[in-house]
Write a structure and sequence with these properties.
- With 146 residues, this protein is of the alpha+beta class.
- The chain has one domain: Thiol Ester Dehydrase, Chain A.
- It contains 4 helices and 7 strands.
- Strands 1, 2, 3, 4, 5, 6 and 7 form a 7-stranded antiparallel β-sheet that branches.
- Strand 6 and strand 7 form a beta hairpin.
- The longest helix has 14 residues.
- The two termini are 12 Å apart.
Length: 146
């Protein structure tokens, strides 16, 4: 079972498990999103860019970031709704890169109208295997109260 609203402490920090971004991830995301832009899907084109390799889609990395947050188990059975998301892309993620996420509890506010819930704002920083910051975001999630 995940944490309830009352169990989150502002300033608390934890790190998610790591995840390698694979070619399958990129191709599957291209199919789902219909984003077949050459920097993601064309190896010849990508070899001529400043990155020299195919890039993962930015929204794929944002999705993987929230997925890694959920993999921690702290939201299992207690999260009610993702209310918003803000995510900045700060660096490239290439096929084969491994990402992990540092998560900070930025805010926790009880609902003023519904006593059975509150909102926790998770601030995320996504790093690659070289500890380079590649993205950061803010994710307010409605959480159940005890």
């Amino acid at each position: 079972m995940g944490k309830y609203f009352e169990e989150f402490k502002v300033g608390e920090v934890f790190v998610t498990p790591a995840r390698t971004i694979t070619e399958t991830d990129v191709v599957t995301f291209a199919w789902i999103s219909a984003d077949w832009n050459p920097p993601h899907t064309d190896a010849v084109h990508a070899s001529k860019t400043i990155f020299k390799e195919r890039l993962a889609h930015g929204p794929l990395i944002a999705s993987a970031t929230i997925g890694l947050l959920f993999r921690t188990g702290i939201l299992d059975g207690t999260s009610m709704a993702l209310l918003d998301m803000q995510y900045k892309f700060l660096g490239p993620v290439l096929i084969g890169d491994t990402i992990r996420v540092a998560v900070e509890i930025a805010e926790a506010r009880p609902s003023t109208t519904k006593p059975d819930r509150g909102v926790v704002v998770f601030r995320t920083r996504t790093y690659n295997q070289n500890d380079v910051l590649v993205g950061e975001g803010s994710w307010p999630i409605m959480m159940a109260r005890r």
